[in-house]
Write a structure and sequence with these properties.
Elements: H1 6-18, H2 24-43, E1 50-55, H3 59-73, E2 77-82, H4 91-102, E3 106-109, H5 113-125, E4 128-132, H6 144-156, E5 160-163, E6 185-189, H7 201-205, E7 207-211, H8 217-220, E8 227-230, H9 232-235, E9 253-257, H10 264-276, E10 281-287, H11 288-297, E11 302-306, H12 319-329, E12 334-337, H13 345-357, E13 362-364, H14 367-370, H15 376-380, E14 387-388, H16 392-399, H17 403-408, H18 410-421, E15 424-427, E16 433-435, E17 441-444, H19 456-467, H20 476-495, H21 501-519
Parallel strand pairs: 1-2, 1-4, 2-3, 4-5, 5-6, 6-7, 8-17, 9-10, 9-12, 10-11, 12-13, 13-14, 14-15
Antiparallel strand pairs: 15-16, 16-17
Helix pairs in contact: 2-3, 3-4, 10-19, 10-21, 12-13, 19-20, 19-21, 20-21
């Protein structure tokens, strides 16, 4: 499923009208009808239930006016409260308001203390509230009446169904300038928006429903829309069947360069994750003073000692280490560098030299990403398109900006960075984004807050690396993101917020099994 920016959705609406001859009023009618259905799904039996409909003066308010009519026909008791100058109603919204008036539906304009008092009393007895205040077109600070209305609704504690996006959320970024409606359900029209998935907007959205409201499928699947939701249906096409005559050499030989003193757990999690994701052979290259420990800790993962800058330092670096690792890389299909590797200058130099040499799939995580701070031109000159798996703090540091600046326009920042650095960037956040140098951005549909725990990123990096030879290397990052998120959800169903990275690691094979079953139409 595509995810649309505001301007892209406006273009879709315009094309539906101009090229397909679908009047705006028809789309508004469909939106109103589907909103009423969503309210009824929340209410159960609507007969006699009290519904408060909040309408602004734009087309979002017109959708709300249309929904009110359908709710009355379903037997609900409806009151509409209009915020804003009624003279500024759009033409379609004004027509729907006029129809509601002819049906005898109560409509109150929030222009007096008496009207606000009536709203407060009505909210007390309401069973549900419909939010049609602002929609996706907001920018800048909220006007005082709108701000007051949103705060009043949130304070009431009533369940809210928002039309398109909770009022107050900026659709393209998920930002909230001051306050936003806390919805129980959001019915988005046509396509979902980035603000449904990125916080703080994601935390306001509640259950997300998507309805095409009769828009032509060709418009909703246009390749020019370069944001895609990585859902179950999309994931099924990413992993080819493993052939009957498969052997370990066919399923991926992965070299993991990781670990330093005090950070051996990251190396362990990443290398084992590559195997759990289905790779045939995984070798972990670690500083030589840590080798015996890791050889005892790992069973299926093989280990190789790498020369250190100083004996017993646990720090990789120097010409001997470079020679050892470059020779090793020739025997492997893909290389993962970075988990727990450390930030010593000699290690950073080692990472950059290996990255410059490699002509095969490569994943850079954690400290390997740190190695390129101040060396972005070297990263852009890599012989292959490396996969970077930073959390947002690491990405901000790499780009030389502050985290709030990155967050301000996350999609565009990540997209631009992928193009400028010629990298595939997997930006880990509440909704992990995978951005390709050509401009395509994928949003994950899996994952949960319990995964905010040490080591989960190492498992992700290893999962992606482990898939490099099993599917097209360019698809491995998004497939890895999907499987990692699904594994996290499976772990959360058992352990909740107490899950650990090892719990997620243990569920990666189960996530693979689920995906295989889905591919074959099995439950």
């Amino acid at each position: 499923m595509k995810i649309s920016l505001v301007e892209e959705m406006r273009a879709i609406d315009a094309k539906a009208k101009d090229e397909y001859g679908i009047p705006e009023l028809v789309l508004m009618e469909n939106a109103g009808h589907r909103t009423a259905e969503a309210v009824c799904e929340l209410l159960g039996q609507p007969d006699g239930k009290s519904v408060i409909v909040l309408a602004g003066t734009g087309n979002n308010g017109g959708d709300a006016f249309a929904a009110a009519r359908h709710l009355v026909n379903d037997g609900a008791r409806v009151k509409i409260f209009l915020v804003g100058d009624p003279e500024h109603l759009t033409a379609s919204a004004a027509k729907n308001r006029a129809t509601d008036e002819k049906m005898g539906i109560e409509i109150y304009e929030l222009t007096s203390d008496r009207a606000w008092d009536r709203l407060n009393v009505s909210l007390r007895f309401a069973d549900v509230v419909v939010d049609g205040i602002l929609g996706t077109g907001i920018h800048g600070e909220l006007k005082k009446p709108v701000l007051r209305l949103i705060e009043t609704v949130n304070a009431s504690g009533k369940a809210v169904v928002s039309i398109d996006i909770p009022s107050g959320v900026i659709a393209d970024t998920g930002a909230v300038t001051s306050v936003a409606i806390q919805a129980a359900t959001t019915l988005t029209l046509g396509l979902p928006k980035p603000g449904h998935f990125l916080c703080p907007g994601a935390a306001c959205t509640g259950e997300l429903l998507v309805d095409d409201i009769g828009l032509p499928l060709s418009l909703l699947t246009d390749a020019a829309i370069r944001q895609t939701l990585l859902d179950d249906e999309a994931a099924k096409a990413l992993l080819p069947e493993r052939p009957l005559d498969a052997h370990k050499g066919m399923c991926g030989r992965i070299l993991v360069i990781a670990g330093s003193r005090g950070m051996t757990g990251a190396a362990y999690l990443a290398s084992l994750a590559a195997l759990k994701a289905g790779a045939g052979i995984v070798t972990l290259a670690v500083p030589e003073s840590l080798h015996d420990l890791m050889e005892m800790k790992t069973t299926e993962v093989m280990t190789v000692p790498v020369p250190e800058t100083k004996p017993q330092s646990g720090i990789m670096g120097g010409d001997k280490a470079l020679g050892t690792l470059l020779e090793l890389t020739g025997s492997y299909d893909a290389v993962l560098m970075g988990p727990g590797l450390g930030r010593a200058p000699e290690t950073g130099e080692l990472v950059r030299k290996i990255a410059a040499f490699l002509e095969k799939p490569m994943v850079l995580d954690a400290d390997a990403i740190y190695a390129f701070r101040g060396h972005l031109k070297e990263l852009a000159r890599c012989k292959q398109v490396p996969v970077l798996t930073p959390h947002l703090g690491e990405l901000a540091g790499l780009l030389g900006i502050e985290l709030p600046e990155l967050r301000e326009n996350l999609i565009q920042r990540v997209r631009n960075a992928a193009a400028d650095l010629q990298c595939l960037i997997v930006a880990k956040s509440e909704c992990t984004l995978a951005a390709y140098p050509q401009g395509e951005v994928f949003f994950t549909s899996k994952g949960n807050p319990g995964m905010a725990t040490a080591g989960c990123g190492d498992v992700l990096a290893g999962t992606i690396a482990g898939l490099m030879e099993q599917t097209e290397s360019g698809l491995a990052p998004i497939l890895g993101v999907y499987l990692h998120g699904l594994a996290g959800d499976l772990a959360a169903s058992k352990f909740g917020e107490g899950l650990t990275a090892s719990d997620v690691l243990a569920e990666v094979p189960h996530a693979l099994v689920r995906l295989r079953r889905a591919q074959h139409g099995q439950k």
